[in-house]
Amino acid sequence: MRALRAERGYSQEQRARICGLGRSYVGGAERVARNVSLVNIRKLANALMLSPGEFFE
């Protein structure tokens, strides 16, 4: 996730704002320190302009 976010030029704060999630939550998800729900996977993928399927490829 971090590489995709950086490739698109977003900071964690910007991506968190777009997703409607906290910056610490997004950071934890990037570090794989959180079990991310399907609802939040969709939010994270949408913020990167990806479908959830593309997100996992």
UniProtKB/TrEMBL annotation:
Domain HTH cro/C1-type intervals: 1-55
SMART domains, A to Z: HTH_XRE
Pfam families in UniProt: HTH_3 (PF01381)
InterPro entries the record matches: Cro/C1-type_HTH, Lambda_DNA-bd_dom_sf
Highest taxon, organism lineage: Bacteria
Protein name as it appears in the record: Helix-turn-helix transcriptional regulator
Native species: Tahibacter harae
